[in-house]
Amino acid sequence: MKILLLLVAFVAAANAVSIFELVKEEWNAYKLQHRKKYDSETEERLRLKIYVQNKHKIAKHNQRFEQGQEKFRLRVNKYTDLLHEEFVQTLNGFNRTNAK
């Protein structure tokens, strides 16, 4: 019984690592495709977290679309690493350096 539990734990850990690696591969491809560069490792970790959260929102929205509950499909784009507020500011032409 202990061996079975150990085996299950090992398989779960191996899958968790591969999921993390998949996310990192997607993230690196995203950065390359959209020419994303970040000023620090801290900012990159933040942007990765936002990217993953937004991808989750996109997937949930597209599931609802497939069920006829939404009228359009979403996809990853150059704004996927932005918070909603940052996205809105970008579209409105907001420039923080000029704001006082």
TrEMBL record:
Pfam families: Inhibitor_I29 (PF08246). InterPro entries: Papain-like_cys_pep_sf, Prot_inhib_I29. Keywords: Signal. SUPFAM superfamilies: Cysteine proteinases. It comes from the Eukaryota. Residues 1-16 form the signal peptide. SMART domains: Inhibitor_I29. Residues 27-87 form the Cathepsin propeptide inhibitor domain. The keyword Cytoplasm does not apply. This is Cathepsin L.
